[in-house]
Amino acid sequence: MSAPSAAAAGGDGQAYGLCWPGKAAARAAAAVPPRAALRLRPGGPAPVFPGGHTILVGDNLEALKLLLPDCRGAVRLCYIDPPYNGGTDHLYPDRFRARRTSGSTGRHGPWLDLLLPRLLLARELLREDGVLFASIGDEELAHLRLLGEEVFGERNFVGCVARVTKRTSNKGIHFAPSKDYLLAFARDKRRLPPFHEVVGPDYADRFRGSDPRGRFATVALYQQALDPRPNQRYWIRCPDGSFCIPPGETLPDPVEDGVPVAPRSPRDRVWRWSHASYRQRRELLVFKATKTSPLRTPDGGRSAWNVYTKYYLDDRLARGLRPRDFLDGLTNDQGTAELKALGLDDRFPFAKPTGLVRRLLHWIADPDALVLGVFAGSGTTGHAVLAQNAADGGRRRFLLVQSPEPTGADDFPTIAELTIERVRRAAAQFAGPSDLAVCDVE
pLDDT digits over 28-87, tens only? Predict the structure, then answer.
């Protein structure tokens, strides 16, 4: 198995890239044949790969290897929620924990050992138009970005989304930590379709104008932040016969509608539209009388008008809205409340809300997606898939992987048992009896 590398050799023979002791062994671990097998738990359906809903209980490195023969190139969305490595000694109960070292890498080396082979395998499981989202905190954000760019290729980095995680904390010395991040990497960014944001009633309410074409909103044609362009400065004729232009010293001659001039300095401001676009789309202009217009008249005075352009609700919905790279309203207390509603409160203090994963499902807009959850934890990904299918009639399927880390509790002795129970209770809420298959990785 091979993957693109972000390292580039320099003239002195040194390489640029993310390096740490043990990196070669961590990369090689992804190519070692699996040492385990899948054992179906009695009383449930057999897994159908890549169909059906399945939870794999065991080391996720071995589990990902076991999924490769049937699921290579089948996963549309992979969500990983790895340990944030915030300074606790416990990292993950597998062989990488024993490699904790002192020195320059500190706790980061073992954490990178953990992530590298799993990212390599997750990449192989993605479809050509697949995408991986990874939640992470400040502690490993920089390392995960570099690692992801090495595995997926720098050109396949899609973006970094900040998410508000809580609002009331006053902990911390200099800042009260209130956010984490989503890093997104594509298997092949050229084949990844544009993301589509959720369209709520508040967005539609912005479109208060109406004409025979439909509901519309307006945006100013002149905006101060625009950089001067040679074909975007020209006269516009206003309804009273006057002419207006963005601020500046260079004026077109003669003073006629649409006559352009090239800006000669940064002080010559421009419209959003090029001269050609203005000629083609002038019917979309809206003029509003105002005493505070930023636009100027031929004699240098203030125009009595400001100029706006229409954009239509139906057009925006047809093209899809692009999500912002900032998420608010999806805080972790929602995840805690969801667990409480299922009778599983006080189990996961930092559970992700299902709304977070459902937002990712909205973004990829694929009702038939196979969704892979690595480091499944509280089972948020499985719960989110079931909830979204119930909401829109989708046929999404999930594969969840969770190691049997001990909890010290009698009712659910391992995190994996909690994962399974949470998904079963969620399934009962949305779809009655579940077709959930559970397999042990042994």
Answer: 999 999 999 999 998 889 999 998 999 999 999 999 999 999 999 999 999 999 999 986
Total domains in the chain come to: 2
Please identify, among 297, 319, 341, the residue that sits at the C-terminal boundary of a domain: 319
172/63 same-domain check: yes
Among 251, 232, 227, 238, CA closest to 293: 238
- Are residue 208 and residue 190 in the same domain, yes or no? no
**Which pair of tokens denotes residue 414?**
């391992």
- Give whole-number Cα distances, 346 to 259, 335, 341, 378, 441, in Å: 69, 11, 11, 11, 27
Are 223 and 306 spatial neighbours (Cβ–Cβ below 8 Å)? Answer: no
Residues 174 and 238 in one domain: no
Rounded distance between C-alpha atoms, residue 298 and residue 107, angstroms: 66
Residue type, position 287, single letter: F
For residue 247, report the phi and psi dihedrals to the nearest 5 degrees: -55, 150
Q: Is residue 3 part of a domain?
A: no
Boundary residue ending a domain (274, 304, 319): 319
- Expressed as residue numbers, the domain containing 294 is 201-319
Check pLDDT > 70 for residue 433.
no
**Per the confidence metrics, is the pTM higher than 0.85?**
no
218 and 310 belong to one structural domain? yes
* pLDDT one-digit tens code per residue, 143-155: 999 999 999 999 9
Sort strands 54-57 and 437-441 into parallel, antiparallel or unpaired: parallel
Beta-carbon count within 10 A of 59 CB: 22
Residue range 326-335: mean pLDDT, rounded:
95
Q: Is residue 8 part of a domain?
A: no
Could you give the CA distance from residue 341 to residue 347 in angstroms, rounded to a whole number? 12
- Residues 85-132 pLDDT 10s: 986 544 444 344 434 443 334 789 999 999 999 999 999 999 999 999
Say if residue 350 is in the same domain as residue 372.
yes
Residues 66 and 167 in one domain: yes
Residues 281, 329, single domain; the answer is no
Residue 272 placed within a domain: yes
Beta-carbon count within 10 A of 357 CB: 27
Q: Confirm whether 38 is domain-assigned.
A: no
Region 269-275: mean pLDDT is 97
Residues 6+ apart with CB under 8 A from 264: 249, 250
Average pLDDT over residues 411-424: 95
134 pLDDT more than 60: yes
| Cβ-contact 83, 377 below 8 angstroms | no
Q: How far is CA 388 from CA 126, 165, 395, in A?
A: 21, 22, 9
